[in-house]
Amino acid sequence: MLLPAFRRVRPLLLARLLASALARTVLFALLATVSAFAAAPEKFPAGDGLFTFTAWDGPPLPVYFHAPANVTPATPIVFVMHGQARNGDEYRDQWSELAARYGFLLLVPTFGNRDFPGFESFNYGNVLAPDGTRRPSGQWAFTAIERLFDHVKSTAGLAAPTYFIYGHSAGAQFVHRLFFFLPDARAARVISANAGAYMLPDFKTAHPYGLGGSGVTESDLKTALTRPVLVLLGEADIDPHHRPMPRTPEANAQGLHRFSRGLNYFRLATEQTVRLGVPFGWKIATVPGVAHSNTLMAPAAAAHFFGP
Fold this sequence. Notes:
The chain is α/β, with parallel strands linked by helices. 41% of the residues lie in helices and 16% in strands. It has 2 domains: 1-38; 40-306, Rossmann fold. An 8-stranded mixed sheet has the order 1-2-4-3-5-6-7-8, with helices on both faces. Helix 3 packs parallel to helix 11 (294-306). It is globular.
């Protein structure tokens, strides 16, 4: 019954309609393909790449990555946290050769200034709102790492039960807080390199320079002190006037420069394990001749992760 009406459509118009429909179909298919890859590649192509992670309660995160030549279910996963410049692409480039050499999947989630302005949103993990109350844990930047770990494993068929995470400078401020706020985080090792200031394991000091008012409990502190943390310090990171280094009174009380602040942080953590009677899981290491440089700290960090 529709055929007579269909015949009344002129041949040229019919051809145009069909072509338009075909074009839309092809376009939708292409967009679906691009969208699927942007969400997370099912199989990571060897080399450098980028995708957008959305499977958490916060804003979309660009994730720069480097995949070794042969990604298998047993491939380790390493997160690298960028510094204050929020330059995930540069950190990926500085770690790519190490990922290829050691055979790990490198992931550099990027917390941009637009969605994560200031220290509180990134360095401090986006845990506390401006009024001092805790945000829902699903919005914490720390939680994004755990969700991204699950997402990459499920989409790429990886089987690693744990991950490695390294941060330099502002990224080091991020990672050294991880186990305090997420005591059950599945990190096999955390490396905090050249942090500008620390959240001291001390309830007498107010957050963000200590645990006071952070919501961290003594039980959380005990657990964090037993976890596998490496404080990695460049021995030449001793410029007391280095521009990005925090110089508030609270930060200055931790030491004259980053190197001394890291030593004092580790010393206080050691004292707390004695006071609390818990086994100490942390270690400290230094890199001779290196100042405030992720490029020069990265090889030492990778070696601590995977051996010489």
